[in-house]
Amino acid sequence: MSTKNTHTATCQLVAIQIISNDCIEDNFQQIIDQLQALPESKKDLNRLVLLPENALCFSSRKHYLSVAEVLGDGPIQSRLGELAIQYHCTLVCGSFPIQSEQSDKIYTSSLVFSPQGQLTAHYNKIHLFDADVADTQGAYRESDTFIAGKEIKVIDCGFAKVGLAICYDLRFPGLFQQLRELEADIILLPAAFTKVTGEAHWQALLQARAIETQCYFIAANQGGEHFLNHAHFEPRYTFGHSMIIDAWGKIMTQLTTGNGVIYDDFNQEKLLDIRKIMPVQQHNQFSCTQKL
């Protein structure tokens, strides 16, 4: 199909890739450095910026519990709102620890801040990563620390409807089918995909989900070798390769490893054209939106 782009951009999609550690101040500075690297935005341009999973705290169970905040109340969330105002964007913190009703477990939550700095939505990660991986950590047990979310989230940002997911969610196509049925046009996938699993599956899964849902994807991953001060771990390795993918499954732009920022335009006309010439949603014989 033709990919000729003649539209006037009204929304810019942005993925920020950093290498977070367990120092929140350092992580904030990494994020600010990448926001400052963006070109000056036009007054009428909406900018949707996605940070990786664990953007401000990449650490151990003890540290996650110590920094967790009440949803909508805390100095870290306030600072994220201030960044959204300063850089005139809808800013999505890929995940941050949020307190729950239980004293010994928390949520890992995507937090959505409007250009006015308000926390307008959140998503609690549904699929928790309990797996064995052939890397320096070996075993990952998110359910020891986090509570699984129960609610699927699509939010209306004005310029588009945006579906929220986090990292391990990517392996469960049923979630993305439901995001599409809830009229998502753009899907966000913040991640801390390991180097081992990323090399095997990251790009393939992202393109498959984009093709299946006929949605744009912003995928912001952690970007390399992590050294942690407050945890007795060997260095941990994430895959990087953050990317933005269109609704035809084409990779529009991507990074490799390290810190960086990528961006490209959301084209509503192209999205509708793809869905018109191949109306997958109408043809789907297994469509069934349901709550968990």
Topology:
Elements: E1 11-17, H1 24-36, E2 46-50, H2 61-67, H3 75-86, E3 90-99, E4 106-113, E5 119-124, E6 130-132, E7 139-141, E8 154-156, E9 161-164, H4 173-181, E10 186-191, H5 195-213, E11 216-221, E12 225-226, E13 236-237, E14 243-245, E15 251-254, E16 260-265, H6 268-277, H7 280-283
Tell me what the structure shows.
- A hairpin with a 4-residue loop joins strand 8 and strand 9 (about 160-165).
- The protein is about 25% helix and about 25% strand.
- It is α/β, with parallel strands linked by helices.
- The chain has a single domain (about 10-285), classed as Carbon-nitrogen hydrolase (Nitrilase/N-carbamoyl-D-aminoacid amidohydrolase).
- It has helices spanning about 25-35, 60-65, 75-85, 175-180, 195-215, 270-275, 280-285; strands spanning about 10-15, 45-50, 90-100, 105-115, 120-125, 130, 140, 155, 160-165, 185-190, 215-220, 225, 235, 245, 250-255, 260-265.
- The strands form 4 sheets. A 6-stranded mixed beta sheet has the order 5-4-3-2-1-16.
- It is globular, with a radius of gyration of 18 Å.
- It starts with 10 loop residues before the first strand and ends in a 9-residue tail after the last helix.
